[in-house]
Amino acid sequence: VAECPHFDAAHPTQGWRDLGLIVESKDGKDNFNAIDPSVLIDPDGRHWMVFGSYWSGIYSTELDPVTGKLKEPGAKTLVATNPADRANGIEAPCRVYRNGYYYLFVNYGLAAQGVRSTYQIVVGRSKSPDGPFVDSTGKPMTEGGHESVVNSSSPMFGPGGGVEFQDTDGRWLMSFHYYDGRKFWHGSVWGVPTLQVRELLWGEDGWPLPGLPITPETAALARHPVDSPVGEWQQQVDFGWVSNLSILADGTCSLGGRQRGSWKRTSDHIQFRWPKEGLRGEEWIDEVKLASGGHYFVGRNQARAVIRGIRREH
Question: Whose C-alpha in 121, 186, 282, 283 is 20 to 30 A from the C-alpha of 128?
Answer without folding.
Answer: 121
